[in-house]
Amino acid sequence: MSFTDTLKRSLGFEETESGGNNGSEGFNLNDFINNFKKPQQENQQQANSQQQNKPNPKTAPNPTVQPDPVWDDDDFVIIPEQSFYEIILIRPKSIDDVNYVVDQVVGERNPVILDLSFLQKESPANYKLAGDKIKKMKAKHGVQALLLARSDEKCLIIVSPKKVKVINKG
Fold first, then answer.
1. What is the pTM of this model?
2. Which of 98, 110, 92 is nearest to 164 (CA)?
3. Class of 88-160 per CATH?
4. pLDDT tens figures, 84-141
5. Which residues belong to CATH 3.30.110.150 in the chain?
């Protein structure tokens, strides 16, 4: 029993001896498989016809030359744990905004860029609390925090979960 026969049987498209399909009124699996194989077969036929049309130069064969290996790209499939990351840029104005950042980094595993300049100017107590929360996340969850820029107008910090590597190369 071939793979396609097994697939047909598991999907309920097994052909009966009378020639009819079981429960496949509008969909024919054989047609689907044949249509899927057609482009590959046509490409092979075109490649063969092009090779036949080329003139063969008469040269002495070189026994040391080996053909290049054929690599099949379908062998390696990498599936990320998370298909994409949202990098959030936020300027927290209250401790609730800082709690949202904690939820994003720890719970959702998204990197966040924080601008703590507003908290630093308007509420030094909340600024200190935000710093403490970042320290706790680093200690407890392995979160990475990296200072991107610090000036009178900005205090940018990137906070990322353990799975997202942030490397300082400068």
1. 0.50
2. 110
3. alpha beta
4. 677 889 999 999 999 999 999 999 889 999 999 999 999 999 999 999 999 999 999 9
5. 88-160
